[in-house]
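Exercise 7.
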Amino acid sequence: MKKIQIIAAIMAAMTMGTLPASAQETDGNKQETRLTKVYDENIDPMQQIDNAVAKAKAEGKHVICQVGGNWCPWCLRFAAFITSDADISKVIDTNYVYIHVNYNPRKSEGAEKTRQAKAMLARLNNPARFGFPVFVVLDADGKVLHTQDSSFLEEGKSYNKDKVLRFLNNWTRASVNACSN
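Solution. The predicted structure, written as tokens, is:
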């Protein structure tokens, strides 16, 4: 169902030339809010991951790669969701280097971009099989610890705060290390 919604949203966005909007309810009134593009489509994803891993190692954190793209309304909804909630933002800021790794399965971008995309997917253990967004947790050495299917975090047209916090808290460096001792 999510994939059908994504395809429909992409087609609608292509037709209108804009990104889909999300509806938020405030005191019974629906307001349309534009979703902010968070993916840099020009960056080399392998370099982006390398930089995040180096930063995580220096800071004693893990990395979360949110793989998706500006074409994906669920990807942009998640980005808005986590930045608008103080509890979630605090868990992320304290425990993770969080990056948005661009991937567009439907766009032909030339040989170099295609090579980069394939290399990135292979490095992250081919997470695209879960749909988008998909979250890949890396340790400070760049090893994949976990791949999270975002559909398990959804609620209605958004995400469930308790489920998102549970995911984030279960994959912190302290939580993973406590289980391995």
